[in-house]
Each structure stands twice: as structure tokens, then as C-alpha cells.
Design goal:
Order of helices and strands: HHHEHHEHHEHEH
Number of helices: 9
Helix content: 40-55%
Number of strands: 4
Strand content: 5-15%
Radius of gyration: 17 Å
Structural class: mainly alpha
Largest sheet: 2 strands, parallel
Distance between the termini: 42 Å
Length: 153
């Protein structure tokens, strides 16, 4: 819960921090989603089922994730069929359990699913489970992944 999260941060910091100080620092961790990536998601959504799997908590969702995707006249549901959040699933990437929950709930098969992530450990677990994977670099335009040359590999 947000309260538990903040209490853990206070404990690890070893000093008194207000909820708003913790929230502000936590918000700095996430960046805005560039319009180019939002446009790519809209195009991909026409042909593919898209899901979001995020290690996050309720603070991020309310303050960053939802607003980042709800711009330019589009709602979050325009980009993703469904979002899966670690705090709701009670486990986090790279734990296999979170991937297994998504596979089951979304009724998808790992070997037919492209998993893109910026965490090496997350990619390693997904690859071990049979997902097609791509390790995204920070601020990378990875639209080339969806070209016929790349997909044929």
C-alpha cells in the first residue's frame, strides 16, 4: 500500500520524511512517455494485443502512469488491452510468478509474445520462459523492432 511503501522508504532513509517528500522523489523516478512511443503503441494496437506489465505502486499509477498515457485525446485503453501492476499481483519482475499470472490472465503464450523491457533481469526471466525478448535502451526509438526485417528473425 502507499502507506507501507512510504514507511519502508522512511526506514531505509533513516530520517523523517513527509509523505509529500517521498511522493515527489518517487515521481522523479519515472519519466514522461514521448509522443513518438505513444504513436507507435497506437499503430501497434491496430494489429496486436498490447499489455503493460509494470513494477509499480498506486502512487505511480495515480500521478504518472495514467496521465502519461492520457494525452493527445487518447485514453489509457487506447494503448493497452490491459495493465498488470506488481503491487496488485503481489509479486514483481523478474519473478516468474508475475509472468505466469499475465500469461494465464491474458490467455497468451510466451513463445508468441514479444516482451520489451529495460531491465536485464526481467528480460532474462522472460527469455527463460520462452518469450521473444528485446532489451530496450533508455530513450531508444525501438520502432525498428516492428519492421518485417526484424520480425522475420
Amino acid at each position: 500500500t502507499p502507506t507501507q511503501f512510504r514507511d519502508i522508504i522512511r526506514s531505509k532513509a533513516g530520517k523523517k520524511l513527509s509523505d509529500s517528500e517521498i511522493d515527489a522523489a518517487w515521481m522523479e523516478y519515472l519519466l514522461d512517455v514521448p509522443d513518438t512511443k505513444l504513436n507507435l503503441l497506437l499503430q501497434l494496437r491496430k494489429q496486436y494485443r498490447l499489455f503493460l506489465l509494470s513494477n509499480t505502486n498506486a502512487i505511480h499509477i495515480a500521478n504518472i502512469l495514467s496521465p502519461a498515457f492520457e494525452k493527445n485525446g487518447h485514453a489509457f485503453s487506447d494503448y493497452f488491452e490491459k495493465a498488470y501492476y506488481s503491487h496488485e499481483l503481489h509479486c514483481a519482475k523478474p519473478d516468474r510468478a508475475i509472468f505466469e499470472q499475465v500469461l494465464l490472465d491474458a490467455a497468451i503464450r510466451a513463445e508468441e509474445t514479444l516482451f520489451i523491457d529495460d531491465g536485464e533481469a526481467n528480460i532474462a526471466t522472460a527469455a527463460q520462459m520462452g518469450f521473444v525478448t528485446y532489451l530496450a535502451k533508455q530513450k531508444e526509438d525501438f520502432s525498428f523492432i516492428f519492421t518485417s526485417d526484424f520480425l522475420e528473425k
